């Protein structure tokens, strides 16, 4: 059974008395235990709305199951004992220090990992009695590790957690995060625009567009199915197998490598063939 199963999820917001806007439409999704999912999409695609539905923060139409139990007002509280999300605690309590916030926060979870807390605390470089708002972005990310990982969750949900931090901090955060979830078989869903930085971290990419899932695939399978052609010049006509062209680049994505290559040779266009990156896949499908 999947860890998380979403069936026919629809979410609309009222625009005025007569009209509403559909942000997510009839979306179904299954998330397996112990895997890392990259939730990708352009601004307004519905990523944050989807995650907020899972966390029980907003009402929706459809059904969401977590560990084979349907989530509703009665079951969400128990489910959230094994789900962590961030960085909401940092934003909600800016005047509290980590030492002030932790006692009440850890009471929400029954599997708190004191050894991991000790390990993270040994490597932190800030005063745990300082309020969150006075910490640097890098120090906030260290605090975020505590709030996200120490509850020993079965599911971690991160929505753009590292956008304001420098590359060194992000690299450290990802490395620690992946090491721990691999050890404990934790499931991670991370929504981010820093696509190139997580290319080697996730098992499956989920790409959303206009409130729907347009792609859900592992990187290995994507690179088997599609190839990137970098061209000497762009052809005047569409090439068979072509998925789409990259704006500003002399390159295209193909799902029929042999036929595309043959067509380009007949047109006299020199080209190189390589595996696409997740950014290439994102640009075409998102």
Query: How many distinct helices?
Result: 10
Q: Which architecture of the largest domain would the CATH scheme give at its second level? A: 3-Layer(aba) Sandwich
Question: Proportion of β residues?
Answer: 25-35%
- Which descriptor suits the 3D outline? globular
Notes on the protein architecture:
With 286 residues, the chain is α/β, with parallel strands linked by helices. The protein folds into 2 domains: 4-219, Rossmann fold (3-Layer(aba) Sandwich), CATH 3.40.50; 226-285, no CATH class. It is 32% helix and 28% strand. The strands form 3 sheets. It has a 6-stranded mixed beta sheet with strand order 6-7-8-3-9-10, sandwiched between helices. β4 and β5 (69-70) form a beta hairpin. The model has no long low-confidence stretch (mean pLDDT 88).
What are the salient characteristics of this protein?
286 residues; alpha/beta; Rossmann fold; 2 domains; 6-stranded mixed beta sheet; 4-stranded antiparallel beta sheet; 10 helices; Antibiotic transport system ATP-binding protein; ATP binding
């Amino acid at each position: 059974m999947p860890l998380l199963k979403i069936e026919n999820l629809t979410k609309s917001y009222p625009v005025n008395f007569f009209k509403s806007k559909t942000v997510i439409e009839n979306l179904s999704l299954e998330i397996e235990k112990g895997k890392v999912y990259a939730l990708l999409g352009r601004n307004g695609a519905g990523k944050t709305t989807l995650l907020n539905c899972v966390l029980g923060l907003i009402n929706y139409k459809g059904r969401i199951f977590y560990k084979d139990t349907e989530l509703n007002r009665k079951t969400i509280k128990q489910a959230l004992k094994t789900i962590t999300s961030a960085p909401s605690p940092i934003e909600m309590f800016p005047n509290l220090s980590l030492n002030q916030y932790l006692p009440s926060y850890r009471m929400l979870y029954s599997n708190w990992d004191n050894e991991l807390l000790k390990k993270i605390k040994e490597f932190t470089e800030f005063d745990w009695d300082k309020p969150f708002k006075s910490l640097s972005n890098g120090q906030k990310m260290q605090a975020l590790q505590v709030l996200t990982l120490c509850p020993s969750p079965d599911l971690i949900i991160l929505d753009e957690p590292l956008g304001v931090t420098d590359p060194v901090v992000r690299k450290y955060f990802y490395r620690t995060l992946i090491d721990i979830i691999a050890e404990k078989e934790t499931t991670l869903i991370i929504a981010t625009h820093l696509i190139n930085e997580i290319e080697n971290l996730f098992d499956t990419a989920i790409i959303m567009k206009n409130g729907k899932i347009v792609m859900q695939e592992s990187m290995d399978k994507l690179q088997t199915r599609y190839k990137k052609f970098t061209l000497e010049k762009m052809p005047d006509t569409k090439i068979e197998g072509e998925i789409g062209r990259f704006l500003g680049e002399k390159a295209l994505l193909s799902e029929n490598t042999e036929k595309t290559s043959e067509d380009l040779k007949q047109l006299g266009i020199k080209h190189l063939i390589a595996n696409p990156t997740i950014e290439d896949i994102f640009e075409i499908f998102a």
